[in-house]
Every structure is written in C-alpha cells, then in structure tokens.
Amino acid sequence: MKLYFESGKRSELTGLYKSHLAQYPDDESATIVLARLYVELSDDQAGTFLQTAVAKHAQNALLAWVHHRFLTSRFDPRALEELDRAIALEVNATRRSAWLTDLMKQAAAQNRGALVRGRFETLLNSKILTLDQRLKWARVALGNQLSDVAALLVKGADVSSLQGDASVEAVLVLAETEAAG
What is the pLDDT of residue 6? Predict the structure, then answer.
C-alpha cells in the first residue's frame, strides 16, 4: 500500500480492492482495507460503502472503528456510539485499551461521560479488569474530569493486597477520587 501511496496511484489501489471484493464479497479483511482507504482519501463513496459494510459485518470491531473514524471526520454525533460499539466487540486487550482512552477523551470533550460510565459498568460486570487496570483507568478518568467514572472503578476495590509503589499509587488514586467526588 505504501508503494501505491508514494507513487500517487491511490485510485489504482482502491480499484484493486473493489475488484477483489466483486469476486470475494465476504472478505472482511479486504472490506476493512477498502473502507480505510476510502476514509483516508476522503472518497465520496466512503459513507455508502461503510453503511453497507457495517451492516454486512456487524460483529467486526475494526470495521466499527473505521466507521467511527469516518463519522468523526463528518462531525456526526453518532461517532462516539460507534466507538463504544467497536470497544464492545474488540477482543484484543491492547486495541481495546487504546480505543477506551480515545472514548474517554472524546466523551469528556463532548460532556458525554455517561457513555464511558456505561462501558466501564459492562467491563466491571464481566470481571475482565484486574485491580491494577481498575486503578489505571480511574487515574485516566480523573485526568479527563470523569470523576464519577473514577469512583465507579475504585468502588469496592480491595487494595490491601498491593505492595510498595502499587500500594502508594492505589491510596493516591482513592484519595483523588474521593476529593473529586
């Protein structure tokens, strides 16, 4: 792809993926690549293509994220919900973490903390967050002025098992959350 971009043959690349998808319409990977190309190139076909692709591959987290990026570029208020949906679908913890950080920042900027709170309620109920992760996210929430989210994350957290610096950090996060609430 880099070669196509550097040589100014971007339209050939989109043509290549369109042709591939005409032959293999269920290829999710190619769908994601073409969607990303359309968004990167600000192609007029991006919106229509993404609507169809997201409907066809509704359980694909990366495609939902690309759709979020497109909606964000259009200042569409549905962009945050699409990012939240991508996070809900994502199984890769590293990618989910990066997207959660984006969700916090964007939701805080738009005064939509309830969306973040809902996502973390779901994560807490699924028991996939460790104590360290809860404290880390509480710190991030505080940094984004989402004190209610921080309070949710530290509520009932038993920090007695932590040692050394982790214990000190936990006490600080708990104190900052208490002070912010």
Answer: 61
Top pLDDT among 173 and 90 is at: 90
pLDDT at 176: 87
CB 52 within 8 A of CB 34: no
Q: Are the C-beta atoms of residues 66 and 46 closer than 8 Å to each other?
A: no
Q: Which residues contact 100 (CB under 8 A, 6 or more apart)?
A: 87, 119, 137
Question: What are the tens digits of pLDDT across the range 101-128?
Answer: 999 999 999 999 999 999 999 999 999 8
**Three-state secondary structure call for residue 50:** helix
Q: Is the pLDDT of residue 9 over 90?
A: no
Tokens of 129: 């967050």
Residue 4, both tokens: 């196509």
pTM score, two decimals? 0.87
Residue environment code for 17-46, b if the CB has 16+ CB neighbours within 10 A, otherwise e: beebbeeeeeeeebbbbbbbbbbeeebeeb
Integer Cα distance of 93 and 58 in angstroms: 20
How far are the Cα atoms of 40, 64, 72 from residue 59, in angstroms, in the given order? 22, 8, 20
